[in-house]
Amino acid sequence: MEKEEIMIDELVRILADKNLSEINYEAEELKIKIKKDLIEEVGEEVILEEEIVKEEEVFEYIKSTNIGKFYFFDKNGVPLVSVGQPIKIGQVIGYISTVGIKTPMKSDKAGVVEEILLKNGDTTDYGKALIKIK
Amino acid sequence: MKKILIANRGEIAIRIIRAAKELGIKTVAVYSEADKDSLHVQMADEAVCIGAASAVDSYLKIPNIIAAAEITGADAIHPGYGFLAENARFAKICRIHELIYIGPNHECIKNMGDKATAREKAIENNVPVTNGTGIITNVEEAKKEIEERIGYPVMIKATAGGGGKGMRIARNDEELERNMVAAQNEAEAAFNNPDVFVEKYVENPKHVEIQIIGDKHGNVIHLGERNCSIQRKNQKLIEESPSFKLPEKVRQEMGDAAVRLAKAINYDSAGTFEFLLDQDNNFYFMEMNTRIQVEHTVTEAVTGLDIIKLQIVLAEGDILNMTQEDIVPYGHAIECRINAEDTEHGFLPCPGKITKYVTPGGIGIRIDSHTYQGYEISPYYDSMIGKIIAFGIDREEAIARMKRALNEFIIEGVETTIPFHLKVLENENYKKGNVTTAFIEKEFGL
User: Fold this and answer.
1) Of these residues, B232, B251, B291, B337, which one is catalytic?
2) Quick check: B71 and A125 CB within 8 A?
3) For B217-268, how does the pLDDT look when each residue is reduced to its tens digit (9 = 90+)?
């Protein structure tokens, strides 16, 4: 037991000195695994970053090229876009109404609608994200 | 008036926001994608992004500005200076959309914006102009007219011109032929209108301008004059009020001429008549600016009036509640335009990040600026950092204050025109008031 404790102390010292993250020691019947606490935290951070990167990669935004009220229902009350709907480049996804003129808003991206970020009739300025797609 | 949309950026947008705040009027800032971190966006009650960085896609895009007014419920638009400030079509569109345009009526902008028409109006109203021609259609006829009636040297001017564009001097027939084509090409490119005319060139003139203010009820007064002779390539660098070495009789005649012409054209806002003054103090009408000007601040300093606030209340239909006798300028004011420019290398614009910014202060100093530490001067627009206005009991005190302020001003990260301004202020001829529009060229070879 004493030998094991000495061995653990020694491995901890090596771990610290060499700035290692993990040591697996096996000899005869003795099996020791030493791991730094910090390592798990770093590991989590790395995973989080990966998730953020994934989100940015997956989602894109269709942004307004006009200023006015954004409508995504046609005159019969039928939505031009809905969540889960695939859309193509050039597809009309709504209208932006300004000074009584309705300008069709066409998608410059293709994908599947993840979220409509504005309510029907909300105002938008130039560059505002209207629809989240993936 | 409840809410003003400011169709501009930079220091003038902030100037207008401040005036509106004092009047208890809400403000809407518009901005391009390049200006999202600008101070006017933060200072206004609301802000609307109106387009991409290029001015053509944002600050000059009339439908986007009108749309921004609609979605915010703004009931008035102030155009500032530059961009759409002298665009008669924009003023008319505002009126069609029942938006109060804080500036003159669109007819005035149209008539005075066309230099040939403005000249005709001046002649009709006994305002002196230099000898000149109408729009030139044939260079041979122009040569004949110059020989018989005008005499060289002449200035070729674009009728749609402004900011020195489309202007060329000709000292003989050969130069006339050559420079007319150059002026026409430049005017076509800048204003989409190649029309030019010729005026007798006044050698070494002073640039003196009269600030006027009018209401919608036919009342017009002037707020005194400004001397803006310190120019480089027709761009003003330093402006002063009152004008130094101006005989009182001439001052009064210029003021009267400006008011007479403004009344004749039904001018109903703040505006400026620019005159050239020759060596014998004869003055000649040059052009009218139908908007607020950068240098309005020096007039404010010596009259104690807030010209932007006057513009706002008069646009609403208020009656001008002062007479010419009420205007008694006091003291002396100087404005220096501080630009991010490399004065050692042809005044080349230096866009970039301002890493350190400490403004001057103390008695008699006003700073109008949109800049702050960490602000990035965009390459898309003019390179102005701000304006220093120094007020003193007389010119000598104003110059001393301006020098103090320039020395106190710390701006790091970009080159500025501060060192050049200091050189001008130290110049003996400047101090004595021996200044014409040729001053910078003569004294500094620039």
Assistant:
1) B291
2) yes
3) 999 999 999 999 999 988 999 999 999 999 999 999 999 999 999 999 999 9
Is the confidence at residue B111, as pLDDT, over 90?
yes
SS3 B155: strand
pLDDT digits (tens, 9 = 90+) for A4-39: 666 677 777 777 777 777 777 776 666 777 776 644
Position A40 scores a pLDDT of: 42
Do the first three CATH levels of B3-102 and B131-200 match, i.e. the same topology? no
List beta partners, residue B365: B390
CATH class of B206-444: alpha beta
CATH 3.30.1490.20, domain B131-200, yes or no:
yes
Residue A127 with chain B: CB contacts under 8 Å: 33, 49
Residue B291 designated active-site? yes
Q: What are phi and psi of A91, to 5 degrees?
A: -75, 135
User: Which tokens is B109 given?
Assistant: 């902008």
What dotted CATH number matches B3-102? Answer: 3.40.50.20
Evaluate whether B1 touches B309 at the Cβ level (below 8 Å).
no
**In the predicted structure, residue B72 carries a pLDDT above the cut 50:** yes
Give the chain B residue nearest A99 (alpha carbons). Answer: B67
Q: CATH number of the domain at A60-133, out of 2.40.50.100, 3.40.50.1110, 1.20.1090.10, 3.40.50.300?
A: 2.40.50.100
3-state secondary structure at position B333: strand
Give the H/E segment covering residue B239: strand B235-241
Q: Which residues of B fall within a CB distance of 8 Å from A66?
A: 64, 67
Check: CB of residue B198 under 8 Å from CB of residue B129. Answer: no
Among the partner residues A99, A123, A126, nearest to B66 by beta-carbon distance: A99
- Find tokens 């404790």 and name the residue: A5
Element (H, E) at B15: helix B10-22
pTM attached to this predicted model: 0.87
Residue matched to tokens 């002396």: B332
- All structural domains of chain B with their residue ranges: 3-102, 131-200, 206-444
